[in-house]
UniProtKB/TrEMBL annotation:
Pfam families: Glyoxalase (PF00903). It comes from Streptomyces coryli. This is Glyoxalase. It comes from the Bacteria. Residues 1-124 form the VOC domain.
Length: 134
């Protein structure tokens, strides 16, 4: 598929405004398009675009309407992971997994939006400072 021009993750949530505000406030997204029960977000660079749809919307096929974003993790590889964790914690974001380092060299933490969308920020330990321990 050489003709892919961008990547978009579509998330079905109960409260589109709450997730929109989370992604724009904490993760640098901007609203590109919005309507009742819908928001298309982008941030440029290598990050995937995000589309938020209200659960139950008739735009979705009937078998998908009552589903919600669950069981998935939206992951971003970043640099300066510890600073991102400090910034999000100071901003009052819901840190649901504190900064840690896995034995295979992945450093990560998770934050969860008001609709339960789990966002994981990752940095490889070989590219960064040692993990903080608490």
């Amino acid at each position: 598929m050489d003709d892919v021009t961008s990547t978009t993750i579509s998330l079905t949530v109960d409260d589109v405004d709450a997730s929109r505000d989370f992604f724009t406030t904490h993760l640098g997204y901007q609203v590109r398009h919005a309507a009742d029960g819908f928001a298309a977000l982008g941030r440029g660079g290598a990050a995937a675009d995000i589309v938020l749809l209200r659960r139950g919307t008739e735009v979705l096929p009937a078998e998908q309407r009552d589903q919600r974003a669950a069981g998935l993790i939206v992951a971003y590889t970043v640099s300066g992971l510890a600073e991102h964790e400090r910034r999000l914690r100071a901003a009052g974001a819901n840190i649901t997994m504190p900064l840690r380092e896995e034995e295979w060299g992945e450093r990560l933490f998770q934050v969860t939006d008001p609709n339960g969308v789990v966002v994981q920020l990752v940095e490889w330990a070989t590219d960064a400072e040692p993990a903080a321990t608490s």
